[in-house]
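Is this the right way to post structure tokens for a design question? Let me know if I should format differently. Anyway, here goes:
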């Protein structure tokens, strides 16, 4: 049975491109919700995130199966880019720019995900600092010190009377 590599790769790239576009949109919406601290909106995104994660897994599985079949036929099977490059010129002509575009979009997704992660981490740091201010009454206390160290440490055994 002959495999139509161009059709198989084109289908994979189409599926992956669609998922990537939806994921970019979702990450943008998520970033806006993080900025506005809209917890309900963030919770509402969860089903969409799970659905996209499932579709991405399906693309990954489709890619793995395609590369496995390529390896069985002696074609390059380490990446879609290498498999595409091994196709006859007329078949790879349309696919090569699509592979590059998909790879560039994957890199953009990494950047967007990192931006959201940094935003979430800064929010957690800010909240941690706010809790510390509330807990200490706004007074900065040294972490280490010689004066009243037993009293400050809450030691019951060594505390002087």
């Amino acid at each position: 049975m002959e495999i139509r590599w161009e059709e198989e790769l084109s289908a994979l790239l189409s599926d992956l491109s669609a998922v990537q576009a939806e994921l970019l949109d979702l990450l943008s919406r998520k970033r806006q919700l993080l900025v506005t601290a809209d917890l309900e909106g963030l919770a509402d995104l969860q089903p969409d995130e799970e659905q996209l994660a499932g579709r991405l897994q399906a693309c990954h599985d489709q890619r793995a199966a395609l590369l496995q079949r390529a390896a069985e036929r002696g074609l390059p099977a380490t990446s879609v880019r290498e498999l595409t490059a091994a196709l006859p010129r007329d078949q790879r002509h349309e696919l090569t720019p699509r592979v590059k575009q998909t790879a560039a979009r994957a890199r953009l997704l990494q950047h967007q995900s990192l931006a959201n992660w940094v935003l979430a981490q800064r929010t957690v740091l800010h909240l941690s600092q706010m809790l510390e201010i509330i807990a200490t009454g706004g007074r900065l206390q040294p972490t280490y010190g010689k004066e009243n160290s037993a009293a400050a440490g809450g030691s019951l055994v060594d505390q002087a009377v």
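Format looks fine. Someone answered above. Worth noting: DSSP finds five helices and no strands in the chain. The helical segments are 5-35, 39-72, 80-86, 89-136, 149-153.
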